[in-house]
Amino acid sequence: MDQTDILYLSLSLIIILIVFGTASSFGKGWSIIAVLLAFLALILILALNWVDFVIMPTFTKILGISFQPAKDYIIQKGQDSIIKNVNGLYYATGFVTGNLFSYTFKEEDVEANVEEKMTSAPENWERAVMSLGFPFKFHVIAVGKDVQKIRDELEGKRSYQEFQLSQALQNQKASSETAITEIKRKISVYQAKLDRISAGEKPIASIMYFETTAVGVSEKAANDALSIQIKQLQIAMSSLNLSIIRVVGRELYTLFKFNFGLPLTYEDLASEFSQEG
Amino acid sequence: MNQKIFVLLGFLAISFIFLSAALGLPSSILPSPIRILLLLFSLIFDVIAFASRRYAYIMLPIIKQHKRRVVLSDSEPYSLSGSEDAIIKMEKGEYTATVYISIPLYRSATEMSEMEKIDFSRQVSKLVGISSDPIRFTTEMYMMNKDAYIQTLRDAINIAETEEAEMMQSGKGAEKIEVVRGKLAMWRNILQNTALAQSMELISYVSISAYGGKEYEALSMAQQKAREAISGIGSTFGVTPSIITGKDILKFVEPEYLIPFSTVSEEIKKKTEEEVI
Questions:
Q1: B133, closest residue in chain A (CA to CA)
Q2: Are residues B203 and B264 in the same domain?
Q3: B2: Cβ–Cβ under 8 A, 6 or more apart, which residues?
Q4: Which chain B residues are closer than 8 Å to A48 by Cβ?
Q5: How does pLDDT run across B26-49, given as a tens digit for each residue?
Q6: pLDDT 10s digits, A45-99
């Protein structure tokens, strides 16, 4: 959650808190209904904060609302595909996440199997691509981060963990063996990242996703074909150990807009997504 | 951002007015069920206020238009620049120019040694970190445009059919008619096989955007960024990338260029014929 999220959440929760505090003024019996309504609103707000990609498409699906993001394009009511009608043929485009590199930066023992991964990556990729008989795009949006800033952050985090470790070692009776091992693991993760930066690797923020298009003689036919293609994509890319999730809701609209212009800065890019790479 | 804050405050203000009415007015003026109804409205506007954090772009058009097909924009999503080397998008009075750079890479993992595979993976890792501005790397697989070839085959079939009809009318020898019929069968078979077999093409490219108050500002900035990216890609892979111009850009932005019209219409015709039979 960023600062803007916190601002929105706290302002919205003020109304709910007022209702909880003044529910008794509605009179006997009615006060319980007032509390229940406030409780429902609270759940809805929290759900919108964490799983908005489920709630909003469901809402537009129930109400049958579709959107026209640009001339000749339609975002379906389920907000899972964008349709373009060209001379009576419908082209349905969908997006799926496909973060190829995320796991390497999260692993502790990065150097141990990095060569194995690097050797197998081009071959696995080619094999996966060859098995697909439909059009698709694999996009990587990358932004180079400020090396010095990242280095300072990592050194700060490592120093804090080292301090925690020295505290834990001084009070060995109070600290468990598991806690000490955990701190040591964190230190080695930060150290591995620092070593990679020292070796010349640039820290980057990245967003990776697939885009695929299917064609049909009706909107439904195009959408059905798209769903089949996305399943095939998931199967083909399973060898690359990717987490492939279909993009729905506002992020679909954002990725559609990226086809015609990219954001200017890292902040612009990060603000469009709930999670960043 | 400022506009979003006004939307939030607007909805919160409406929510607060309903809440004040529900809490402030005594039961003698407003019976409890109506006060609960006002409370419900207040909570609905509170939830809408929170949802405006991410969904202001659809909420305001939904409220204004009262339609099931909500128009977010009815203009073309982009236009080709005068120099035909970029696409231009205009949004909120600002121009965004996006330049596409082709990366001519024709290496296969099957032809690489273990060391070459590692080197290639390292080059790819290095490539994604070449820019401190957002940059998009794409691998695209699309159907080859066989429109011209299919049209040639159709013309040949038409000529052969006319030839056959003329021979039948003039009562020429059965042998000559058989020769023409054989030719006709050959062209038809070639057309059928061409339409049935999908020919795919793989291309890698980079897209990079820049903003400006005027079109030429955005364009020259994007071209400048593109030149920097070209030198980075060139030094990483040892190839000569080039800026894509003219109609070739369309296959990166328009879905119908991923799946060419006549290729796909021929396929759909064949599928429909098979289903009918």
A1: A143
A2: yes
A3: none
A4: 47, 50-51
A5: 777 778 888 899 999 999 999 999
A6: 999 988 888 889 999 999 999 999 999 999 988 899 999 998 888 999 999 988 7
Q: Are A277 and A206 in contact (CB under 8 A)?
A: yes
Residue A58 and residue A9 share a domain: yes
> What SS3 class is residue B210?
strand
Last residue of a domain, one of A63, A83, A107: A63
Per the domain annotation, does B19 fall within a domain?
yes
Same-domain pairing of B207 and B272: yes
Nearest CB neighbour to A26, from listed B35, B72, B122: B35
**Inter-chain touch A45–B46, beta carbons under 8 Å:** yes
- Name the residue facing B128 among A19, A41, A204 (closest C-beta): A204
**Across the interface, do A84 and B255 touch by the CB < 8 Å criterion?**
yes
Full residue range of the structural domain in which residue B216 is found: 79-145+199-276
Residue of B nearest to A216 (CA): B268
C-alpha distance from B161 to closest chain A C-alpha (Å): 28
B236 Cβ contact list (under 8 Å, min separation 6): B123, B126, B127, B130
For residue A55, the enclosing domain spans: 3-63
Do the Cβ atoms of A225 and A214 come closer than 8 Å? Answer: yes
* Closest Cα in chain A, distance from residue B139 (Å): 5
pLDDT tens per residue across span A219-261? 999 999 999 999 999 888 887 777 788 999 888 999 999 999 9
Nearest to A235 by CA among A84, A131, A94: A131
- Assess contact for A202 and B129: CB atoms under 8 A: yes
Structural domain count, chain A? 2
Q: Do B68 and A126 touch (CB under 8 A)?
A: no
pLDDT in tens, A82-91: 999 988 889 9
The verdict on A76 and A135 lying in the same domain is: yes
Same domain, B185 and B203: no
CA of B163 to nearest chain A CA: how many angstroms apart? 33
Do B120 and B43 share a structural domain?
no
